[in-house]
Amino acid sequence: MLFLTRESIQSCAEVWKDADVELPQFDYEQVAENTRVRPEWVHFGAGNIFRGFVANAHQKLLELGKADTGIIAATSSDYELIDKIYKPHDHLTLLVLMNASGEFTKKVISSITEAIMANKNRAEDYCRLVEIFENPSLQMASFTITEKGYTLTGPDGMYLDIVKKDMEQGPEQPSHSMSVIASLAYRRYLKGQYPMTFVSMDNCSHNGDMLKNSVITIAKAWAAKGVVEQGFVAYLEDESRITFPLSMIDKITPRPSEVVRNALQEQGIGGMDILITSRNAHTAPFVNAEVSEYLVIEDKFTNGRPLLEEAGIIFTDRETVNRVETMKVTTCLNPLHTALAVTGCLLGYTQISDEMQDQTLRTLVERIGYKEGLPVVVDPIILRPQQFLDEVLQERLANPFIPDTPQRIATDTSQKVGIRYGETIKSYVQRENLHPAELTAIPLAIAAWCRYLIGVDDEGNSFELSPDPLMESLQAHLQGVTLGDSTSNVHRILDNEKIFGVPLYEIGLGSKIESYFYEMLKGPGAVRRTLEKHLNEVLG
Length: 540
Hints:
Layout: H1 6-11, H2 13-18, E1 21-22, H3 28-37, E2 41-44, H4 48-64, E3 71-75, H5 79-86, E4 93-98, E5 104-109, E6 112-117, H6 123-133, E7 140-143, H7 161-169, H8 177-192, E8 196-200, H9 207-225, H10 230-237, E9 242-243, E10 247-250, H11 258-266, E11 275-276, E12 282-283, E13 286-290, E14 294-298, E15 314-316, H12 318-332, H13 334-346, H14 352-355, H15 359-373, H16 385-396, H17 406-409, H18 417-420, H19 422-430, H20 441-452, H21 471-477, H22 490-494, H23 497-500, H24 510-520, H25 526-539
Parallel strand pairs: 1-5, 2-3, 2-7, 3-6, 4-13, 7-8, 8-9, 14-15
Antiparallel strand pairs: 4-5, 10-14, 11-12
InterPro entries: 6-PGluconate_DH-like_C_sf, 6PGD_dom2, Mannitol_DH/Oxidoreductase, Mannitol_DH_C, Mannitol_DH_N, NAD(P)-bd_dom_sf
Keywords: Oxidoreductase
Pfam families: Mannitol_dh, Mannitol_dh_C
């Protein structure tokens, strides 16, 4: 039985190759020593997308001889990821790329040379982090910590208690992830005001600006209390020294799959057990992921950077990054995901790929993308929107080996519909030859979301709604609504311009969506009947 360790991939290399596993082709020991002495890249957020995408890209550079240092992985919260996944496997990851055809491509990722806790309670680890940030060689810190990791305030707009405490205590005892980063940046400032770049690679809008604002907000609070110099704030705001580029990332790296684990076991690869951490993160020594991947980064670095363009990463200007993100989020991927999420929950699906076998749902998302989205798509030039959309619809969403669920994607939908649908609707308002009232699939998706909020599926059975910060207020408008009702306060939801970004009733869409909603409410099977009826009408 093979086990994922450095000793195993060295002493049993032929056996690994017989199992069709590609092994790293560079001098790891030399790279690890180089990284120890002159670290260039530290990454915060040591989860699946980092291991399955970012670390793999850097490994390509190492194997091409385009880099000679590795990545240092850090996490400020989930110690089990470090102690139970990284360390027992010598920081290695078994990457399993899953084609829609069912073929698995397996590769050992070895570009991570250290894995440490960014936490004061791990004194040795934290001292190493300080040492890294005080080293002039450090080029960048990157992040995949999810959007919540950058958030300093709660839904009420007030600072979180942990943030208030950090602001009071200063840089010596940071707890919140942004306070930790500000504290480490302060140590670099004190050591020599060395330049470096902070790169958010999280899947959220204007991620670099979000990171910058949070770190500088913490720094300003400390400066106001007199616990750091005003010069530290100036250092963070000086773009000749510190930058926070924008980026757009796109790759599905879902929870580890039991199917993949069992397949690896059958091939003689052991120790691939799936771990659910105390923070409810699902992880394993392997990462299963789709083949498709995109990472576009604003080329704004102050102390050098890895030559990641050699590994397929795109570096471009700020406006182009924005346009790529807009293309993806408002037209070519995210609107389709949201439509499949809410309709999938209503129609009893638990896998996105299964929904793509449902001709009605496939027609819904094809119409949202091709017919209603592409006429107003923002074209980034460096990627072709229709080609991107083709790949999403024909390969990515339909891939049965990507265990992604509508229930996961339905999370926080109230925070998404304004971008995913509102921006396209705005474009229809602004174009002389297009009219919002002509839209059909997007209004159906919005109506399905309102119908979803009742928490009753298309067969009349209750189901658990995914978390949403506005859930309580949204459900209050629909309290007591049952199948067969023809009145409700759903107009209070649809009339909320803060949610949708546009006045739906003023532009002629509110009443249309409301009528779809009541059709979906008529009784068991009404959701499917409504979708079929109106999609068939537009197909003519």
